[in-house]
Amino acid sequence: MKWIEAKVEFDCTDTDTETAVDVIAGVFYDHGLRGVVIDDPGLAPAEDWGDAPVVRPEYPAVTGFLPVSSEGLARCNSLQLQLKNVGERHSIVTRLRLREIDDEDWAESWKAFFKPVWISGDMVIKPSWETVSAKTDTIVIDIDPGMAFGTGGHPTTILSLRLIREHLKKGDAFLDVGTGSGILAIGAAKLGAGSICAIDVDETAVTVAADNFLRNALNRDRCRLIRGHLGAAIKEQFDLVAANILTDVILELLDDLQRVSKQEGIFICSGIIPQHKERVVAALEDHRFDILAIDRLENWVGIAARRRG
Fold it and tell me: What residue ranges do the domains of the chain occupy?
């Protein structure tokens, strides 16, 4: 299958880089693309990243991928128009660069940058083609991201898993909103959740997550995958709901997130930049959630809250 790589390079004067990334990623989300790749010229590679030198990008950029089809081309045109509109509102100058790539080309180039990520001393996310030295009781989340981009290396995923580990109880009913490659759902299952439901609007993400569920030997009787929107697709309530998505999407979905959370249930959200933390906290409190914990990693924030009884 062929894909359109839509790379948005940007310059910003009155807006900081983190906010600009959040705004541009939000445009991708509006076009049905939850996962994006972020280029940051100021981000130094971690130690032991690899033997080959990592070339830093010249400009900050956000990249998403669309299938080559009449619908994909129409979404590219719409993407360009919306980027222009948000750029004018936020003083961001964007340059959209498009190129066509094959599945195989993308997959091979991605493997060079996807390494095992240790969430804690006994929990690791690893790509399916890598091996790790781990104790027998280590929780190993085995992932092939495909075109869903969820590799576990992003700070928002690490924050989410940390908070899930802290607040999930054995036997809890767990909902993963915007599952991507399925990492949070798989992590919850391996931490002892009783039932798992994962939902995403993107068909590719649901396909990739399904493959990863099988790869991690999740019990089909207690795991569901749904393609659709939260408001229309989910009717029951859950003990713990997690949403590793963008600030504006979290705020947009809060009515439904409150509805699908049991009384005294836990809601965990990430994908929030520090400048938006107070907005999210205030909105959660307005929706009868009490804040339990706020964690920060690099330039991202994760929040755990409990729905009031």
Answer: 2-107, 150-307
